[in-house]
Amino acid sequence: RGKQMELPITITNPQTEVMIDVNALVDTGSTGSCINTNFVHRHGLTTTKFEEPIEVFNADGTNNEHGHILEYVRLPVTIGDHKEVLMLLVTQLG
């Protein structure tokens, strides 16, 4: 296992009110918050399409092999006692 930092969080599916406990990967170099495509499909989360695709670049500046980000989800997230709704970009994560 690498030296990544993970944080236990709870995501709530707004349509079903089902609470999902997961470990979120903290990426201090990222310019946005992302969620894995497979996770979105597995949990039946509703997505919203962007009007224009968003280009995805790797840390070394190259284009991400999984292509552009086309959609996002808005999800209630709980971290300890803190709760907020996050906009998460849907993409295929490594």
Mean pLDDT: 89
Distance from first to last alpha carbon? 14 Å
Low-confidence stretches: none
Helix-strand sequence? EEEHEEE
Q: What is the architecture at the second tier of CATH?
A: Beta Barrel
| Envelope shape | globular
Q: How much is the radius of gyration in Å?
A: 14 Å
Tell me the count of domains.
1
Helix content: under 10%
Output the number of helix runs. 1
What's the level 1 CATH class? Answer: Mainly Beta
What would the CATH topology be? Cathepsin D, subunit A, domain 1
The CATH homologous superfamily is named: Acid Proteases
- Proportion of β residues? over 45%
DSSP, total strands: 6
What class, by secondary structure content? mainly beta
**Largest sheet at a glance?**
6 strands, mixed
What does this structure look like?
Strands 1, 2, 3, 4, 5 and 6 form a 6-stranded mixed beta sheet that branches. The radius of gyration is 14 Å and the shape is globular. It has a single domain, classed as Cathepsin D, subunit A, domain 1 (Beta Barrel). Strand 1 and strand 2 form a beta hairpin. The protein has one helix at residues 37-42; strands spanning 5-12, 19-26, 34-36, 48-54, 69-79, 82-91. It has 94 residues and is mostly beta strands. The chain has 1 helix and 6 strands, in the order E-E-E-H-E-E-E.
